[in-house]
Amino acid sequence: MKKPNMILSIRLFLYVFLSLAIVSECVQGPQFWGSLGFPSCDGDLQSPINIDTEEIPKYEYNDLFNFKHYDDVASRITVTNNGHTLMATFDYQPSKNRPSISGGQLGGTFEFEQLHFHWGAQIEKKYSGAEHTIDGVRAPLEMHMVHRNVKYNTMDQAVNHTDGILVLAALFEMNTNNVMPLLQSVDIVHKMVEPFMGNATLKPRPLSSVLPEDTTAFFRYRGSLTTPGCQESVEWVVFEHRAHVIVGQLNMLSKLRRPDQKLISHNFRPTQSVNARKIYHMVYKHPGQVTAESASAGLRSPLLAVYGAVAAVVLVCNSRL
Ligand SMILES: *[C@@H]1O[C@H](CO)[C@@H](O)[C@H](O)[C@H]1NC(C)=O
Ligand SMILES: *[C@@H]1O[C@H](CO)[C@@H](O)[C@H](O)[C@H]1NC(C)=O
């Protein structure tokens, strides 16, 4: 007689427990960042996005980015598990030799600050943890090389301006032979970075060694930081060509822990709406070879649209007077 009741109450308990667990997971989840005091996270220019290669035309361009000091060997590279990601900082001697990028219609010089990774848990021997997806497909790993516009002195200032940040993003493919150069030695030191705030010093190498082999083809768009406060201050460059990582390096990342000792397990934000944004698929052509719609004309068109909109508003406002 008592048994069904007991099963019922156990069930009820499980339902309540599970619902609470799901709710508590949800209210901390990315879809609630906007209501948790980070209003920018609900903005119209959010990142990451899905890049639909069928939908976006290719723009040929001939003004390559000017990578400066990218081939200089760093005097020291430190990786730190900050509880959200594994972040690498590079020191240079002298310090004015920090790598920077200009040209390529960036409209300024952007100095390298740090790089970090986004990864996912392993499900059925498959890793998927990149933030940007290409035609709906999520790569195993994504690296963000964060640069600050030199007209702002600090990252805190730069993130408050629409021209503050440039992020170079590399998607990785899993490869059995090609080790990611940066994390080569982490097999040995991974125990040091596994706990929250654990850190390790890596073998000095140039920043260029972490880039994909071909950096001339990329997707470019206006977006945001992918963690709160989601400031819409980022010019995104997502390289079309992949970098390489071996399964051992992905395994190492998936063992890193949060402050509460739980595994970080996955740290990618879901893709956000593209809305009215234009995404550019930039493909390098030697000067004289440019045949398709010119890249600069393509990049200027949003500005023309803004001028057009301003003109329309001025016309409407004037006609009201
Ligand atoms: C950036 O903007 C936020 C929000 O408006 C403000 O609280 C903060 O002080 C600003 N930071 C800097 C360095 O200007
Ligand atoms: C690295 O970790 C050690 C030991 O916890 C700590 O003393 C040191 O300050 C850390 N270094 C950095 C750069 O965070």
Topology (elements, then pairings):
Layout: H1 2-28, E1 50-51, E2 58-61, E3 65-68, E4 76-81, E5 86-91, E6 100-103, E7 110-119, E8 122-123, E9 126-127, E10 133-134, E11 137-138, E12 141-149, H2 155-158, E13 165-174, H3 186-193, E14 199-202, E15 218-223, E16 234-239, E17 243-245, H4 247-253, E18 280-284, H5 295-320
The structure holds 2-acetamido-2-deoxy-beta-D-glucopyranose (2 copies).
One 2-acetamido-2-deoxy-beta-D-glucopyranose is lined by residues 78, 80, 199.
Distance between the termini: 82 Å
Helices, by number, come to 5
Mean pLDDT: 85
Global outline? globular
Helix content: 10-25%
Weakly predicted, low-confidence segments: 10-27, 300-321
Could you tell me the CATH topology label of the largest domain: Carbonic Anhydrase II
Strand coverage percent: 25-35%
Protein name: Putative carbonic anhydrase 3
Signal peptide: 1-26
GO molecular function: carbonate dehydratase activity; zinc ion binding
Keywords: Signal
